[in-house]
Amino acid sequence: MEETATGVVLCDDGLARPAWAATDPLLRRYYDTEWGMPVRGEQAVYERICLEGFQAGLSWATILRKRPAFREAFAGFHVDTVAAFTDEDVERLMANPRIVRNRAKIRAAITNARATAALRAEGGLSDFVWSFQPAATPAPRTIGEVPTTSPESVALARALRRRGFAFVGPTTMFALMEAIGMVDTHLVGSHRRGSSGIWT
Question: Which end of the chain is less packed: N or C, by CB atoms within 10 Å?
Fold first, then answer.
């Protein structure tokens, strides 16, 4: 493997990937098959918001490796089930070594489930989040040009916080927007650029 002039790594299969997706097989598979592909639906978007929140301050590899355990611990991220979690559930989750045991993040996942249920009166979480899709996507030519926030991620974070969500800062929400296909930050010329079908 070798790093190219744009900052991506030319992998042994001949494809260029960002450094974070170049070596770990799990991250490579996630990058090649999931990251940046459209995600819609209440439960799916809620799960992504939770996992992005848990990732804050940690590597995405850590979260991805723990994703099956997160899904088991949080009832498949079924919104109404998590919304009904109690203090006893918080303690159960804090005792689970297979997930990230951060009390504030665990409570945020429960808080966000309740806020997600409340958003049904406004058309639901998925449509709400996607309403902040920008008119144009970034077109970075190098890794250094990939943004970490946008006016839309700032606005989305603010709007979600007003509706009771937690751990939804502008950087976290931009990462969400990248992950679910709302923006395409694959480098121009990358084999993954435009793979979502949303941006050409």
Answer: C
